[in-house]
Every structure is written in structure tokens, then in C-alpha cells.
Specification:
Strand content: 15-25%
Structural class: alpha+beta
Order of helices and strands: HHEHHEEHEEHEEHEHEHEHHHHHEHEHH
Membrane topology: Multi-pass membrane protein
Strand order of the largest sheet: 2-3-8-5-7-6
Number of helices: 17
Largest sheet: 6 strands, mixed, barrel
Number of strands: 12
Keywords: Cell membrane, Membrane, Transmembrane, Transmembrane helix
Main location: membrane
Pfam families: FtsX (PF02687), MacB_PCD (PF12704)
Radius of gyration: 31 Å
Helix content: 55-70%
InterPro entries: ABC3_permease_C, Lipoprotein-release_system, MacB_PCD
Length: 404
């Protein structure tokens, strides 16, 4: 009976109810859009980290990552590389020789991470070749070529065919230098990464470091994101002397960003619904004041305060929930469109986006995993919105209400 009365009361003033339902629809759509955009941005960032920067897993000598000392090579690296590549879940593997050094030009110097790579393997694993914006890939017939990031190139005023000098220490602690010529300038979706990382042929770096055919890192790309822990444990059992880390451990700032954005998404959703609550409170308060005699009559006939409160709560809940499916559907439809077409945010500036590690085209994704949380926020909004009008109604004295 209370349910029927509440539903009929909602539609006594249709225009007022439609305005509130529309407000809830628009607010919920706005909230879903924000959640979808954040989810798309985080998914894009994670894909960049895995597919273009660090891979799913990396293997190192345990002492290497403390100081990047070049003597901490992977023992029997080629055998380890072969075993890792034969695991069914593994898609690609690639070795890297790494050292920290100084890049110097006539205009200045900068600290860089020097990555010695096998070009053919690195092109497939990190898509390095696809990131080239000026110049050409490494030429097998030429020596001492280097590939640098676009941000570093602008900072050091370098262009293709420019000369530079790399200085670093070898495994004996001696300073060694090599002159290189810029073969290509690459640009990824992560400007800080571009500024810090340069690539040269692994054979040339190894000769300067004095480590011959060894290397410091094996990067592993898997066929699925879901088997990271399984393959990590399998490799750790086979090679207990090595340090094997997942992308979350290698790039903890990305993992933290994903978790933080999730929390911010709910906060934004809460703020939107909290703002809508004022409109709902105003509507319910007007409805209560218009029905003072009616509520007084109900209480005089024996309707207890719990049922009166329940009646007002249900009216508020119906008003709030009526706009929920419409808001969710519109959010789902528009999110689905941009998920296929992509949302171009280049107007915000490629440099600004890349400084945070994001591309300019984002593919929003409907936040299915957050729908339950959104519905709880909607019900919570209805409950909070009904409290003030309900208290106003419960304080009425039946005799005084009937005189009005």
C-alpha cells in the first residue's frame, strides 16, 4: 500500500518530477562519462607502459637495479633468453644492455639511460620503429648510430645526422666515451621517458662496457595480461638467482595512478550526486508543505511515524531511481560510440598529455565494474535527500496540521 501511495504521489506534479528525473539522468550521465574517460585513459596508459616501455615482465641480476653497475650482467643470458621464449604464454622476448651515462653536445650535456638493443627484436617488442618521427631506423651497414627521444632532441638542439658523445663507466670503473651520430628521433606518448632514454646497437655498447656478448635485462611480452603472475612464478622457480619483476613493480607510479584515479572517480561521482541532492530536497520539501493537511490526516487516523518516514523515503527513492536507467543507457550508448571512434584530446595539447604519459586519442570504456558502486551512491543520495523533509513531516502535530 505504501509503495502504491508513494508512486502516485511522485506523479502528482508531473512537471516538477520530470525536472528532477531529468536532473538525475544528466548528473548520472556526467558521472558515467567521467568514469568511462578515466578508465579509457588508465587503460591507454597501462598499454603504453606494457607494450611500448617495460613489457609485462623483466629479468635482472639482483644487484643491477641498485646502482646500474655494468658488471651485474645476467649469467648465461642467452640460455635464459631461450628458455623464456619457449614458455607457451610468452609472445616476445628481447635482451637489453643498460648503463647510465652523460650525453654531450657542443650546446650542453644531459644525463641519460643508454639502452643497448638488438634492433630487429626491439622494433617488434617496444614498437620503437613505429615511433620514429624524423630520420631512419638503424642501418646494419653503419656503425655508431643512436636513436634519441624528441624531447631530448629539442633540449639538446639535435637533429638527424647530428653528432654527440656518450660517456659512462665500464665494468672496471674506467670512464669510456664514444662518438655517435643521430640516426633517428622517436616520439612516444611519454615525454619524460623520451627525454631520458637513448638507444644504440647492443654490440657497440657491449664493446665499450667490456661485457662481450652478455646483457643486463630481458624484457618479456606475454600473450595475455591475465597470466603475468603465473609466468612470473614459473620463471622465478626456474631462475631463483634472478630478480623477476612485473610491470606493476617496475612502474609503481603507473599502478599507483590507476588506483588513485579509481578513488577520484568515485569522489567526482559523489560530488555530482551531492549537488543533485539539494534539488531533490527542495522538491520533496515543497511536496511535504503542500500536503500538510493530508499527512496530518494520515497520522490522526493512526499511521505511525515509521510508515510516514517510509512513504517519504520511497517517494524520494522513486524520483532518484527513475532517472538512473536512462542515465546509464545514455552513458553506455555514447561511451560505446567513442570507444570505437576514439576521443581526440589533441586540443588539450600533445605535449601536456605526453608529459603525463597519455596519448592524444583516448578510447573511453563503460565502467561496468563500477555500476554497483554508482547505484549505491544513487540510493545513498535518495536516503540523505529524504531526511530533512521526513524530519519536517514527523514533527507535525496532527491537530495543528489539520487546521492549516
Amino acid at each position: 500500500m505504501i509503495f502504491i501511495m508513494a508512486w502516485r504521489n511522485v506523479w502528482r506534479n508531473k512537471m516538477r518530477s520530470i525536472v528532477i528525473v531529468s536532473s538525475v539522468t544528466i548528473g548520472l550521465f556526467a558521472g558515467i562519462s567521467v568514469l568511462a574517460l578515466y578508465k579509457g585513459m588508465m587503460k591507454s596508459r597501462v598499454r603504453n607502459v606494457i607494450d611500448a616501455e617495460v613489457g609485462h615482465l623483466q629479468m635482472h641480476n639482483p644487484g643491477f637495479e641498485q646502482d646500474y653497475e655494468p658488471q651485474f650482467i645476467l649469467a648465461h643470458g642467452n640460455e635464459v633468453l631461450k628458455v623464456a621464449s619457449e614458455i607457451p604464454e610468452v609472445k616476445l622476448v628481447a635482451p637489453r644492455s643498460i648503463t647510465m651515462g652523460m650525453l654531450a653536445t657542443p650546446t650542453g650535456s644531459a644525463g641519460v639511460r643508454i639502452n643497448g638493443i638488438i634492433p630487429g627484436m626491439e622494433y617488434r617488442l617496444s614498437q620503437l620503429k613505429n615511433k620514429i618521427i624524423r630520420g631512419t631506423p638503424f642501418d646494419p651497414e653503419k656503425r655508431n648510430e643512436i636513436m634519441i627521444g624528441e624531447k631530448l632532441a629539442r633540449k639538446m638542439k639535435l637533429k638527424p645526422r647530428s653528432k654527440l658523445v656518450l660517456t659512462f663507466t665500464d665494468i672496471s670503473g674506467n670512464l669510456v666515451s664514444g662518438a655517435f651520430r643521430v640516426a633517428a628521433i622517436y616520439q612516444s606518448n611519454n615525454a619524460p621517458f623520451d627525454e631520458k632514454n637513448v638507444y644504440i646497437n647492443m654490440e657497440e655498447l657491449n664493446a665499450l662496457l667490456g661485457i662481450q656478448h652478455a646483457f643486463h635485462e630481458i624484457v618479456i611480452l606475454l600473450k595475455s595480461d591475465l597470466v603475468v603472475n603465473k609466468v612470473q612464478q614459473e620463471l622465478q622457480q626456474k631462475f631463483p638467482a634472478f630478480r623477476i619483476e612485473s610491470w606493476q613493480e617496475i612502474s609503481p607510479e603507473t599502478d599507483l595512478m590507476v588506483k588513485t584515479i579509481d578513488q577520484y572517480s568515485y569522489i567526482i561521482m559523489f560530488i555530482i550526486m551531492f549537488s543533485l541532492a539539494f534539488g531533490i530536497v527542495n522538491t520533496m520539501l515543497m511536496a511535504i508543505l503542500e500536503r500538510t493537511r493530508e499527512i496530518g490526516m494520515m497520522m490522526a487516523l493512526g499511521t505511525n511515524r515509521v510508515r510516514v518516514f517510509l512513504l517519504i523515503f520511497l517517494e524520494t527513492l522513486f524520483l532518484t531511481l527513475a532517472g538512473t536507467p536512462v542515465g546509464l543507457f545514455i552513458g553506455w550508448a555514447i561511451t560505446g560510440y567513442f570507444n570505437k571512434q576514439g576521443m581526440d584530446l589533441s586540443g588539450m595539447g600533445r605535449e601536456m598529455m605526453s608529459s603525463f604519459g597519455f596519448g592524444t586519442v583516448i578510447y573511453p570504456e563503460f565502467p561496468t565494474d563500477k555500476v554497483t558502486g554508482v547505484l549505491l551512491i544513487v540510493v545513498g543520495t535518495a536516503l540523505v535527500s529524504c531526511l530533512f523533509p521526513a524530519v519536517k513531516a514527523l514533527r507535525m502535530r496532527p491537530v495543528e496540521a489539520l487546521r492549516k
